[in-house]
Design brief:
- It contains 13 helices and 19 strands.
- It is α/β, with parallel strands linked by helices.
- Helix 7 packs across helix 10 and helix 9 packs across helix 10.
- The longest helix is centred in the first third of the chain and has 15 residues.
- The termini are close together.
Length: 426
Amino acid sequence: MKITNTRFQMPVGQGFFHAGWVGFPEAEEKFFYVYDCGAMTKFASERDREIKKLNASVGNGARLDLLVISHMHADHVNGIETLVHGGKLQVDTIMLPMIEMKERLLSFATTAHEDPASTESDFYREFIVDPVAAVSRFDPRNVLLVGRGDGGAPGSGSPDDSPLDGGSDFSGEGRGYNWKLVGQGTADFPSRDAYRPQVATIPDTSALRVFEFRNWQDAWLIAPYVDKEITAKNDLFITNLANELNITVAELEGRLAIESFCFDLVTNHADKLRTAYKSCHSDLNRTSLCLYSGPAGSVAVDHGCRVKHGPWISDLGHQRIAWLATGDAKLSKDDKCDAFLKHFKDHLDKVSTLTLPHHGSAGDFNQKLLTSTKPSFCTVAADAVKDWEHPAASVTRTVASEGAMLLVVNANETTLVREYVWTNRP
């Protein structure tokens, strides 16, 4: 039984925009997913160009089975409204990490400092204040808020790929394919009757298992991992912000539960948020949702992987056909990198393409990512902004020394990365 995965890393400059499709022999449609969609204002025209091209290729009103949002920075989310608004795409399920208000404000303050124009977006302001309400305007059927779980990804450290406890409501189907939420842990419905769409919190020990109708055994896995924030910097940011607002920390923390107060902050006090951020901006670690897209089980003997980048086409014969994204996770510290690798441990030998964390920043990179995963390709979404080293020269050298090919995706259309992989079990 043949499974195919076509995936594009879109050239949007300093930002991130990835789209993929999973197909099966008897299915009339393909499972369609997107991981992030955004770019800094400097690259707005390139971002919109790629959104327009994707919308045109799939057709107006096409179903987007899964939209994954890695974190709260504008350069990863500020294209989402353009991508799906007005029925351009019919979004079925949206997945994003659970992030507290403190950190959401810090992400907004970061954007206010680095790319002020992005903070003028009504959608982005609403997304910071109430992410579920913001994405609900796209009328999804499900919203999944992902937190850290106890264990690894389904099929990695546990043989349990049965439906997630309490998550039987979370499934979907197209013409010829199905998906179910599987794994360890429990889906929790904070307000089961009050929301439309259906909202649940789930552990990252769960995943979407995509399979051909009536063929559960051969499947594709879309599996998250949440790299958690370091709270010390958040606490310093809140202290600084309280000083800027001339109120106590306790008073500020109490007001953060009031939606109108938070909306006023992001609308009328971006300057105060920016000032509070500047005094604690070094060595920040934000919650980021990483993602595995690859076979749920072993790769069949009959398989293939073709990667096109600019004029170069690479055909590989090994069994590495999966894609592993790191978002803006800060994996430079060994303990954090080890936790990430442990989570996906039984899937690492299937990875052909690894996205470098945080646009190839040296402060978020760890050589263990390469020595443990041994990818053929490392993609990095980055472009020239200020004096940022994206990607850093030290990271570039390490990728080369480990024998992987670095694929830099910037604003130039020719840097699009197109991958086509397949596995066929007779």
